[in-house]
Amino acid sequence: MSIEARLARHFWPVFGGLFLAVIGWSLWMRNVFPTDRKPVPFVPAPEYVERLSGTFRAPLAQSFYMKGVLEIAQQQASKLDQLFALFRLAMRLDPRLVNAAFFGGIVTPVTVADLPRAIELLREAEQLNPTEWRIPYWIGFCYLEMEEYDQAAAYYKKASELPGALPFLKFATVHLLSRGSALERALQRTEELLASVDDPDSRDFVLARQQWLKHMLALEEKNREFRARFGRWPARLEELIEQGLLPALPPDEFGEGFELAFPGDPEKGYRVRSRLGGL
Nearest CA to 217 among 176, 182, 242, 247? Predict the structure, then answer.
């Protein structure tokens, strides 16, 4: 039998055996030397996708946008880099996809520390859509969350001068700053934010945010009832349940549960926050 015939006869059995051996060795190594490293999410650079997308930019933009929306629901705090990259890519591919700017700049940030990156993304969106009033409004919204009121007022003014802007923008800053507590101001902002979005996903998020804030305001009111009855603020929110003021604590849709922001403080002991930092 020739060498060629022998090779042809034994190639596939040998190849299959080696292939199975490599898989088995890989599984054995994983069990013997476990690693805590998590997979690194990959989002291609916008410049490359723009060159390769051709006439399919809009569908590709929509796909990356939807990928980001779906990722938000799962462990948002650990995926900020991926989410910012996905929404930035969607914006670059289709500047008309303004909802990508909303989700990237307003929905993605988890804490105040994330807002500078959100503002950076929104400023890129503003360059792509210079006549879209909602984008400078969202930038101003971020600055209000950071309590940088001069910057917020400047962007609100800029938004108010663009076509289609809602009338409230000319007076919103003065109105917001005259509010009493941070939660009340935040609730007012969500009411105005609701007027600036027009797609179901964005509206659902803002409505959920409103309900979240209302839960905290309701807890603060119960804390006042507690003090009126017992002469002190509760040491923890669970005391509201123990004393019969609440059947249970409301769910925290954006964090890991509600808690007292200043336990034991004689003036601010009623204040409530989310465990992820909230506002």
Answer: 182
Torsion from C-alpha of 131, 143, 119, 194, nearest 10 degrees:
-60
Distance of CA 81 to the CA centre of its chain: 11
Q: Counting beta carbons within 10 angstroms of the beta carbon of residue 180, is it exposed (0 to 12), middle (13 to 18) or buried (19 or more)?
A: exposed
Distance, CA of 267 to CA of 233 (rounded, Å): 9
Q: How far apart are CA 224 and CA 218, in angstroms?
A: 10
Angle at 72 between CA 53 and CA 94, to 5 degrees: 25
Q: What's the rounded Cα separation, in Å, for the pair 115 and 143?
A: 8
Residue 185: how many CA atoms within 13 Å on its side-chain side?
18
Contact at 8 Å (CB) between 114 and 107?
no
What's the N-to-C CA distance of the chain in angstroms? 80
pLDDT value of residue 160: 86
Which residues are CB-contacts of 147 (< 8 A; sequence separation ≥ 6)? none
Instruction: List domains and CATH numbers for the chain.
Output: 46-183 (1.25.40.10), 184-279 (no CATH)
Say which DSSP state 76 is in: G
pTM > 0.85: yes or no: no
What does the pLDDT look like over 6-47, one tens digit per residue? 655 665 565 556 555 666 656 655 565 555 554 445 555 666
- Give the DSSP per-residue string, 180-211: SSHHHHHHHHHHHHHTT--SHHHHHHHHHHHH
Position of tokens 């926050």? 273
Alpha-carbon span 190 to 141, nearest angstrom: 10
Q: Give the mean pLDDT of 194-220.
A: 85
